[in-house]
Amino acid sequence: MxxxxxxxxxxxxxxxxxxAIHAGTYPPGSTLPSEPRLAAExxxxxxxxxxxxxxxxxxxxxxxxxxxxxxxxDRPPRRGFEHVQPLEELLGAGAPARVRALLRTVExxxxxxxxxxLAPVRAELRFWESLLAAEGAAAALSQEWAAPDEVLERVHxxxxxxLREAAAPERTSMLAVLAGASRGVALGAHSAVSATLLGQRxxxxxxxxxxxxxxxxxxxxxxxxTPVLAAKHMLPTGAPALxxxxxx
Length: 248
What we know:
Domain HTH gntR-type: 7-75
Protein name: GntR family transcriptional regulator
Number of helices: 9
InterPro entries: Bact_HTH_transcr_reg, Chorismate_lyase_/UTRA_dom_sf, Tscrpt_reg_HTH_GntR, WH-like_DNA-bd_sf, WH_DNA-bd_sf
Keywords: DNA-binding, Transcription, Transcription regulation
Pfam families: GntR (PF00392)
Strand order of the largest sheet: 3-4-5-8-7-6
Distance between the termini: 44 Å
């Protein structure tokens, strides 16, 4: 089991709020207390709370309504679609964006990964957080989770082996590892694109103010009907254009 000390504080706070939602403290359709009151109830700082609330909003658990505040959603949002290609290749104009590892660890599922990777509560998920640089500047922050090893061994053993044997994981993304291990394996993917703010932690990582507008791309990659990778990509204002391929 992954210990709490191995998990990021914002993930722990995220789960505390999710637990309160599931316990009925904040039921679907209800409005959360104001930030000062909620921070006092949880015994945390307002910046830390704001980060967790942003994640909950991105994951579809909360909505922000002008004049009302943050409300708990009845159901997660519908998702879109995408062309399967590593983000560093999409962002690079002629040459792939550079990938720099910020974190390579193992985490227990959050609601986001439980929903999109169908991971049981006590599963251990590989988590990679990376900074992508293009045209000499930070262009994106990527967070990627792989399905539990036992799932990968069953539906995509080459991907499981590639993750274990990656020679330089600090310079590549998890999606690039998946793409490289998938010759002859059909992948399907979908994505959602939404507007948000960087927040304090991600602003510091990207060298931008916390209130910088950003585009959040959420993606899930599947082998057949089984999800093998879920990711969030945060692109701040001024990042290189992200091409989108559509077909019918």
